[in-house]
Amino acid sequence: MGHVLVTGATGGIGVALVGALVEAGHRVTAVGRGVGRLDVPGIEADLAEPGTLAGAMGALEDAGELEDLTALVHCAAISPVAAVADADAEMWQRILAVNVASAAELTRLALPALRRSRGHVIFVNAAPGTTGVPRWSAFVGSKAALRELADSLREEEAASGVRVTTVYPGATATDLLGEVRAAFGRPYDPEACIRPETLAAMIVWVLGAPADAYPAELSVLPSPR
Length: 225
Ligand SMILES: NC(=O)c1ccc[n+]([C@@H]2O[C@H](COP(=O)([O-])OP(=O)(O)OC[C@H]3O[C@@H](n4cnc5c(N)ncnc54)[C@H](OP(=O)(O)O)[C@@H]3O)[C@@H](O)[C@H]2O)c1
Description:
Layout: E1 3-7, H1 12-23, E2 27-32, E3 42-44, H2 53-62, E4 69-74, H3 89-117, E5 120-124, H4 137-157, E6 163-169, H5 175-184, H6 196-207, E7 217-220
Parallel strand pairs: 1-2, 1-4, 2-3, 4-5, 5-6, 6-7
The chain binds NADP nicotinamide-adenine-dinucleotide phosphate (NAP).
């Protein structure tokens, strides 16, 4: 078992993920806002400000907390719903900062440790069907960029033994999904969705893949009812 850095640890999926990681015997450090309310150690960071992350990660490094790092799971995201006609520059900058640029920057800062441990980077993306969705261009655009970031990183770091996985969850029962469905005027039935604990268990399984193979991509859908 290893030491896993998790963003979005205070969210619906993130809380379940932290619980599953700890249950599996991993040490977890959360990165984000309000992480002090979690049961695991954390560092405060606003992912809307990627330029501040070097300071936050530097503090962890100075405390010797990156030495045994084995994995980084990017679970944070924002998902504003707005047509292109209504999405201003500030909104685009914010979503690309939180959903993409901070993931790239945290990965960059963690790479020296992850290379040492031949570690694993997991990007929580969104179901591959989310392409070209009216009123969701900024979100689907950010997730498309996140997929390309992951695919580039996988090839770049293959020689250093770092594994890179993109997880594509379908509808998962969190407050966020309820809000997104309401914004689209679509019904939300948590019972028809993936339980966050189930998705979390699958992410823990990915981290525990044997030495000779691992899933580069994992699509997770609610079972047919
Ligand atoms: N739920 C679904 O159906 C679904 C489906 C496909 C993919 N996903 C993906 O799964 C991941 C988690 O989704 P979720 O449903 O658990 O969403 P959530 O409950 O809204 O969690 C989002 C997390 O991101 C963090 N975050 C947002 N802005 C931040 C910022 N500026 N700085 C630091 N942290 C920030 C939030 O922390 P704060 O509380 O500080 O904002 C929270 O911990 C996301 O990447 C999402 O796109 C979800």
